[in-house]
Amino acid sequence: MTNSTQPVLCLGEALIDVISRKDAEVEEHVGGSPLNVACGIAQLGHPTLMGSWFGEDQRGRMIERHLVNANVSVVEGSNKAKKTPIADAQVDENGQATYEFDLDWQVPSLPSADEVSHLHIGSFSATLAPGAADVKKAVDNSTGTVSYDPNARPSIMGSPEDVVPLVEELISESDLVKASDEDIAWFYGEETPIEEVMRRWLSLGASMVVATRGPWGAYAKIASDRDMLVVDPLTVDIGDTVGAGDSFMAGLISGLLDAGLLGGADAKERLRNARLSDIRGALHRAVITSGITVSRAGAYAPTMDEVEKVRSVDPLL
User: Fold this and answer.
1) Helix runs in 44-180, H state only
2) Cα torsion angle, 89, 90, 96, 100, sign
């Protein structure tokens, strides 16, 4: 595990996914990309904090119970919203989900930067006013490492032209950036090569950029190596894709924490100078965690025991 006893702080939305599938009853599940990442990191054995904005209503209590059960601590004041936000998720016959949102986003008072080893931000909460200004302030004040998953949400982010400048400003201050190929296509257009965007994000200041490509695995580029690493996905029977990208992000952060490449100022420098061989283990962990998640229904967060069980079956991972 990471040498730091200071927690990872995941900052962003925690909400209720109201999930509709054809010929099935509507279900309600705790969700939100940063929350899923927080639960994933905690289940992999790292001390984790969640800073968010939800209500003291029944749905808010569902969120708090979910976080506690995943061993995630909650930043005091995160439950002061007037009502708990919801995401209306429509899941098609292929397990793909599309979302509509009903929410308000603000940021509670956060612990001081020197109490946190790593800050993770992501999704629409990083760019949605009024909370986005406080997210940016947390990034500006960070003394450790920062990860960012832009996680495009067209229904709430507005137009790509409006949001890309905000996204790129956050990328310029992040050490690790992860996005799906679908995110990249929405931000920059389907005709823009993924590799071109990855190089752009590195030039903005990121030390490591990962693009996930679903059944085609993931691409990884780092600042100190001219080559790109391609990682194959885990072959599984798909339950649905809910939370797959968040599980990948959690596994990646966990692996990099354990490798000493995230979690403090020294780790920031080590990641900046890392080689592709240094990050391969973290990418394999990310592939395993996301593979386990898509084999289940919903945003399942695997434990390290489950990861090791998969690894024992396939020693190449």
Assistant:
1) 58-69, 131-141, 154-157, 160-171
2) negative
User: CA 253, CA 283: separation in Å to the nearest integer?
Assistant: 9
Task: Say whether pLDDT at 296 is over 70.
Answer: no
Element counts in the chain: helices (H) and strands (E): 11, 13
Across the chain, mean pLDDT equals: 90
Contact 109, 138 (CB under 8 A): no
What amino acid occupies position 207?
Answer: S
Helix or strand run (H / E) with residue 209: strand 208-212
Global pTM value: 0.91
DSSP, collapsed to helix, strand or coil, labels residue 188 as helix
Classified as helix, coil or strand, 179 is strand
Across-strand partners of 100?
A: 88
Note the pLDDT tens digit of each residue in 210-252: 999 988 889 999 999 999 999 887 765 455 455 678 999 999 9
CATH for 8-311 is 3.40.1190.20
Tokens of 19: 């999930």
Residue 129: which residues within 8 A CB-CB, separation 6 or more? 105
